[in-house]
Amino acid sequence: HNSQLIFTTSYSSVFSPPIYLSFLFPTFPVFFFTLTLSPPTFLFITKTLSTLHSEAPQLATTTMARLVVEIQDASDLMPKDDQGSASPFVEVDFDGQKQKTQTKHKDLNPQWNEKLVFNVNNPRDLHNKTIDVIVYNDRKGGHHKNFLGRVRLHGSSIPFQESEAIIQRYPLDKRGLFSHIKGDIALRVYAVHDSSASYAPPPQDGGAEESNTVPLQEINTNYKPEEVLKEEEEGMKKKKKEKEVRTFHTLGAGTHEHHHHPATQPSVISGAAVAETRADFARAGPASMMHMQVPKANPEFALVETRPPLAARLRRRGDKTSSTYDLVEQMYYLYVNVVKARDLPVMDVTGSLDPYVEVKLGNYKGQTKPLTKNQNPVWNQVFAFSREMVQASVLEVILMDKDLVKDDFVGRVSFDLSEIPLRLPPDSPLAPQWYKLEDKKGFRYNSGEIMLAVWVGTQADEAFPDAWHSDAHNISHLNMSNTRSKVYFSPKLYYLKVDVIAAQDLIPSEKGRAQETHVRVVLGNQLRVTRSASHSRMNPEWNEDFMFVVSEPLEDLIIITVEDKVEVLGRLVVSVRDVMHRHDHRKAPEPRWHNLHRHLEVDTDKQKDKFTSKILLRIYVDSGYHVLDESTHFSSDLQPSSKHLRQPSIGFLELGILSAMNLLPMKEKDGGTTDAYCVAKYGNKWIRTRTLLNTLAPRWNEQYTWDVHDPCTVITVGVFDNCHVNGSKEDTRDQRIGKVRIRLSTLETNRVYTHFYPLLVLHPSGLKKHGELHLALRFTCTAWANMVTQYGKPLLPKIHYIQPISFRHKDWLRHHAMQIVAARLARSEPPLRREIVEYMLDVDIHLWSLRRSKANFYRIMSLLSGVTAVCKWINEICYWRNPITTCLVHVLFLILVCYPELILPTIFLYLFVIGIWNYRFRPKQPPHMDARLSQAEFIPPDELDEEFDTFPTSRHPDIVRARYDRLRSVASKVQSVVGDLASQGERALALLSWRDSRATAIFIIFSLIWAVFIYVTPFQVVAVLVGLYFLRHPRFRSKMPSVPVNFFKRLPSKSDMLL
């Protein structure tokens, strides 16, 4: 087998599709010779080699695992028979394997305490699979069953150690929208490797006994070519009907096992002999240089694809909201709009009442604000009760009178839930009606009416964002606004240019004193200072230009001060609103002379002194730039500030924020809970979902849309814990749960992506997963031609390249733009707080981090790995490691030398074939936060502490000294590498610099000889000689360095001139 495996490897590397196809165009005679082989012989060789190559290595490296699902008990199940009971059993489906427990007759709180064990063929693929646990009601001895609920578990959450698994209770989910399901089930799920597993899955019915001495199945390769051809023809006919499966049998430590057990009584037998089926064998793939295999990251931090029942996938054409809310699951709510009341009776001795309305549905109730001394109150408040929380069949609207001791009953109105109409957009809002108030016995009063509107709708209803929700029943009216969903827009930002040119007639208070004047320009909290001008005392010149960030409505003032070391020589105040605007890169406005004043005054035309000092300035708002308020690496908007220069949209992006699960408790109250909400940012539009209180598995199901102008942009979605729902202090900061960034250019158009994204946050104690965020995403293109041409246009507007901003100024301007955006959004109601904006915009992305430095280093090494693989492949060809490949390269080289016009077509055809070949391996999932790429999985504690250190440092001097020494050691290696690179470049320059006269003389004489030789010799002959020498056999090679390498290393460099 060893010799066959070596030959198979050579064969597969020669005939891997990209390399093999690249020879078809220029080496047609060789390819034709290959086809002259008899078809039976060619098929026989191909089948035998591919079988040995695909199966033999797998036999030695196959690993198995067991998935153990412990069914503990269930409680409060839905009754299904006429006696108010049920006979439940549990069926577990994993990777096509189904097992079920015993049936518990007439028991709504059954206890099974059974273990179901499943085969896991490839443990590395477990995180991509799901486990369905379904509870049924046994109607007629297992032949008929009713659905009682289900639980779907993702493989990424399953531990691989039994000690880490705990019993968890899962609420049973519905199968459809109108299913009536309740109750929960207790499960304990874990996986164990085959070597340590003591469980065996129940065998299939009808099996026979097997001995533990059964040998491995042999693969007979001694077929005749004709037999192989017949088998190939028969296999092609059956290929569409059944999938090819290769089996591999192994035995456990036991001796015998009877394979006949009842289906409802799975047995757990220790050490039993088990026959395992493997279906994951594959044929030999392409050469490694075509597709680099990246090691898999921690499955806990991986992306999990889902298939939720969304209208965009189910294509419900009859649904009215499918066109606008098709990326989220519909959630039905009972809406109650309390508008106003009139002619209310007098309840107090003052001759009036303090009315408020209480809306009650089961255990949930909402309350309006009490209005003092008002018999005709107006509330205009909407209440929303989730259908999942409905615990009663009657809705009560009770009108009460606020009193000091006990509130008085005024009247009520009742509604039967079965009679409430269903209203869905685009229907118009339901018109409110007047209802007579009734007493507690149901009799109507003569006076007193209340105007209400009651309907059933979804989260697409226009009343949804501002409604009082039943899950926020314990929140006061003052804090209610902090829990609602809102849309925000960043302020419109511009760059303001101030060119300080010169000043005239500056008069100091003390004559004869030497002046070193400079100009200080202040705009808000932005400050810039010119250099000191000392060559002219009264008429200095500076010729410096500054840029500032301003935002609409342009209410800021520019304060320009001319001063020296002793005193202020003059001031000027200019309003930004009065400044000229430039919309493109054309000629800038002409500079103007402005009067300087000793006191702080606004510069107007009315204030003209007979004699004043003057300053020459050019001030204008340049709206042709795009103001960068986020990092250019993941910018979400690249349009210029001027609306006249903006490009039309190429499509729109739709985001459905579905839910989150397994969130970590961020608060310690009630045993640990989280009040989670999401924030998404794309372009200048920010969205904030409503806050769901006291839950670790919130379900938002909110959908939002953005216009897309450039596909090479990034959308950012963050999850936070709301710390202001109970009237916390203003300086309390909302806590980070995690965020996700997705680049639009990596998404296929018109495709719906639904995944669970890991929420990863780096803490001083290490990397933590705070949960998973369930998102649905779709990028729709409406202008294909514009999108394709967008790839040939520059990222930023034209003026960024005609009049570029220096890198140092970019960071300074970006910092102030971020501060302006954060300050403006913090003034909204409810505020989008500063810590949220800074986290979404990655304010601290520029700070030093050894972890980020390592990540960037390994990114560079990953890029160079492709070049290294090509060099290794060329080296193997030169040393004839694979004679067949080397011979084919010789043939290809000779053909290209004889027909040089085929060189460029061959190169581009090769690139085309590689691209087509790699299409099979294209990423199927959108990008996400990669813990392995970020070097965040295993970080030393000292490096983490250094990353979270303040600037300037606040650590002990000994710690800072140790870190400085470590940085010096790293810098010394970088210093050595840079010195070596400099030496090589200096040696190349020394070839003709006559620093070593003998070496330069040798080189120029050699160059002359080669010039004459190449002139008198045809180019094809020279190319053939050089190529054959380069590809010569190892027998003609020496282990010593070549003459050109020795000559180059002897050339002088400047390293010996350094101190």
UniProtKB/TrEMBL annotation:
<keyword id="KW-0472">Membrane</keyword>
<dbReference type="Pfam" id="PF08372">
    <property type="entry name" value="PRT_C"/>
</dbReference>
<feature type="transmembrane region" description="Helical">
    <location>
        <begin position="891"/>
        <end position="917"/>
    </location>
</feature>
<dbReference type="InterPro" id="IPR035892">
    <property type="entry name" value="C2_domain_sf"/>
</dbReference>
<dbReference type="InterPro" id="IPR000008">
    <property type="entry name" value="C2_dom"/>
</dbReference>
<protein>
    <submittedName>
        <fullName>Ft-interacting protein 1</fullName>
    </submittedName>
</protein>
<dbReference type="InterPro" id="IPR047255">
    <property type="entry name" value="C2D_MCTP_PRT_plant"/>
</dbReference>
<keyword id="KW-0106">Calcium</keyword>
<dbReference type="InterPro" id="IPR047258">
    <property type="entry name" value="C2C_MCTP_PRT_plant"/>
</dbReference>
<feature type="domain" description="C2">
    <location>
        <begin position="634"/>
        <end position="757"/>
    </location>
</feature>
<keyword id="KW-0812">Transmembrane</keyword>
<dbReference type="Pfam" id="PF00168">
    <property type="entry name" value="C2"/>
</dbReference>
<feature type="transmembrane region" description="Helical">
    <location>
        <begin position="1001"/>
        <end position="1031"/>
    </location>
</feature>
<dbReference type="InterPro" id="IPR047259">
    <property type="entry name" value="QUIRKY-like"/>
</dbReference>
<keyword id="KW-1133">Transmembrane helix</keyword>
<comment type="similarity">
    <text>Belongs to the MCTP family.</text>
</comment>
<feature type="domain" description="C2">
    <location>
        <begin position="474"/>
        <end position="594"/>
    </location>
</feature>
<dbReference type="InterPro" id="IPR013583">
    <property type="entry name" value="MCTP_C"/>
</dbReference>
<dbReference type="GO" id="GO:0016020">
    <property type="term" value="C:membrane"/>
</dbReference>
<feature type="domain" description="C2">
    <location>
        <begin position="46"/>
        <end position="170"/>
    </location>
</feature>
<feature type="transmembrane region" description="Helical">
    <location>
        <begin position="20"/>
        <end position="45"/>
    </location>
</feature>
<feature type="domain" description="C2">
    <location>
        <begin position="315"/>
        <end position="435"/>
    </location>
</feature>
<dbReference type="InterPro" id="IPR047257">
    <property type="entry name" value="C2B_MCTP_PRT_plant"/>
</dbReference>
<keyword id="KW-0677">Repeat</keyword>
